[in-house]
């Protein structure tokens, strides 16, 4: 019987396990195909958080149910003003809850939203802890959000 090994990484997401990023180099069912190193785990978490923030939910989330597939993402933010402190705090709460519901690999998430450099943009600074086996590391990254004022006017010609 094989003895358990200490992990220094974490398990990849289901959809990442279903995608063959290198089809010319088959890996089979090796553990390395489903267990990510700590740097790869952090990159996977960043990709998933970006996907969450790029997705829009129905906006009718029921807190008693937690996050369901219909709640994946964040509510529409196009009506919010990046210059408003109250609106930025609302986005912070929304993003934090979405991370708690849909990216449990990021522990104790903290979210700060600030006005971006472009018109109508917001910068979301996210931090938290990544736990893999007995190893805990801090993860910090930024994700940009765009509102309606940030969209480019259509070109008629």
From TrEMBL:
Q: Where is the IraD/Gp25-like domain?
A: 40-131
Q: Which UniProt keywords apply?
A: Plasmid
- Note the Pfam families from the entry: GPW_gp25
Query: In the record, which residues are listed under signal peptide?
Result: none
PANTHER family under this entry? CYTOPLASMIC PROTEIN-RELATED, TYPE VI SECRETION SYSTEM BASEPLATE SUBUNIT TSSE
Question: Per its record, how is this protein called by name?
Answer: IraD/Gp25-like domain-containing protein
Q: Which organism is it from?
A: Azospirillum baldaniorum
């Amino acid at each position: 019987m094989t003895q358990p090994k200490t992990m220094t990484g974490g398990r990849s997401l289901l959809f990442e396990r279903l995608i063959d990023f290198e089809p010319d180099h088959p890996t089979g069912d090796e553990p390395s195909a489903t267990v990510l190193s700590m740097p790869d785990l952090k990159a996977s978490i960043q990709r998933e958080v970006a996907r969450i923030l790029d997705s829009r939910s129905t906006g009718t989330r029921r807190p008693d149910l937690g996050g369901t597939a219909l709640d994946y993402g964040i509510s529409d933010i196009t009506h919010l003003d990046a210059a408003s402190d109250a609106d930025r705090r609302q986005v912070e709460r929304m993003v934090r809850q979405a991370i708690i519901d849909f990216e449990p690999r990021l522990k104790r998430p903290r979210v700060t939203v600030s006005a971006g450099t472009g018109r109508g943009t917001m910068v979301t600074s996210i931090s938290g802890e990544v736990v893999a086996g007995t190893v805990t590391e801090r993860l910090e990254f930024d994700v940009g959000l765009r509102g309606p004022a940030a969209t480019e006017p259509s070109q008629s010609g």
